[in-house]
Amino acid sequence: MPLLSEAWLDRHVGMNYYISDCEGIGGRVKQSLEDFIVEEVLIDGQVVPTSLTQKPMPKINNKPGPWTWMIIEKRGIDAITLLLILSRKLGVNTRDISFGGLKDTIAITSQIVSVRGVSLGGIPSDFGRNIKVLNAVGMDRAFTIKDIWGNEFTIRVRGINESRRDNIACIINQVMERGLPAYYGYQRFGLKRPNSHIIGKYIILGKFEEAISELLAHAYPMEPPRIREVREFIARTEDYTKALELIPKGYRYYPERAVLRHLSSNPRDFANAIRRLPQELLTIYVEAYQSYIFNLVLSERIGKNLPINTAVPGDMVVLLDEHGLPTRHMIHVTETMVDKVNELVKRGRAVPVAHMVGHSMKPLPGLQGDIELEILRREGVDPSMFRVKSIPRLSIRGGYRPLFVKPLIFNVDGSGSDLTLVFRLPRGNYATVFLRELMKSMKPETDYT
Hints:
The chain is of the alpha+beta class. The protein has helices at 8-12, 79-90, 167-178, 196-205, 208-217, 225-237, 240-246, 254-265, 270-274, 279-303, 338-346, 367-379, 431-439, 444-447, and strands at residues 3-4, 17-18, 36-42, 67-75, 97-99, 108-116, 131-139, 148-157, 180-181, 316-320, 326-332, 350-356, 399-402, 404-405, 408-415, 418-426. It contains 14 helices and 16 strands.
């Protein structure tokens, strides 16, 4: 039987099962920013380095054009805050800034960020002590997700149970044999405030008052006491003007302040209050709910003892390119072709997928389609709801996501109660999902922060 997670946060974000059944080693990550290093890996295999690992800078040729590509190292900064800081300091619209992927917040990370309309001479060497520009080149186009293969992680797990050190090999072997579930990790939903998917669901349902209440007034135990008090005050009084005075200034609470400013003058105008948030953030909320549904579907498949690293009749399978990344070429698996398809999966040329729900989603007959329809029924949503009529720019067509991935593990090393891991994952996958299999924490909300 699959091993069921007993952690509240796992169940809250839809990661109900582990793929490995060996006992976890415990421990904690992110005790310092240096314990969690994330370096972008480009499609050609070059690594975008942090200053900590001393790897060479990628070779990128200057090209004349309106874009500048910056290699940015950030420390303890989330993607939305990075976007807002760059926009303000460079004097450009947020739509003129692009990057290929989100990176962990509680970490030291490196990535390429492109900005339009700013020359190389207009790029400062740093944007404060937490954001540094390590290099910059001129370019004729924006940097996008298609330029990225994935990420390389250098992670230290502290305080593991030394008596279970032998379990590390057992867990890794099972993950490589069975496939690492391609869950969306904790960062997708938030660790201190794991509610991005909840806000997203309310937006999909057109329940803007509930979305605002979740954003402003739902206090979570991991938040600072002062912030919990402000949220409890909002829930009790709905005094938005006073709450605006109480909520701290700064980028971290920008969403709350933007909404509170509108509600101070328009106390019941929840729909337009939501629209005061940047589109990038609203999109994150809606996509977080989409990700939550995927996690539930994947959990249900594991819970039914169906394989995730081989196809069964009724599955959709996507072909992989020479980099091992999904293409647009799909196969609907039937009884007559299942063996041939699974030979492609075994050779790393194809992978079973599940729907990422959207308004164009059409579940197919078969076990996987039945699971997807059942999860949507339980959630009380329909694919058509992802055509967000009240905020059309947030509409999502949908797509597919692989059910599993195999980490590229370069190093597993440790002494005493510490363990250091160096590994790569293709874009869109989460290091914490791999760590979750190793640690099997009962309290991820504290052990991953």
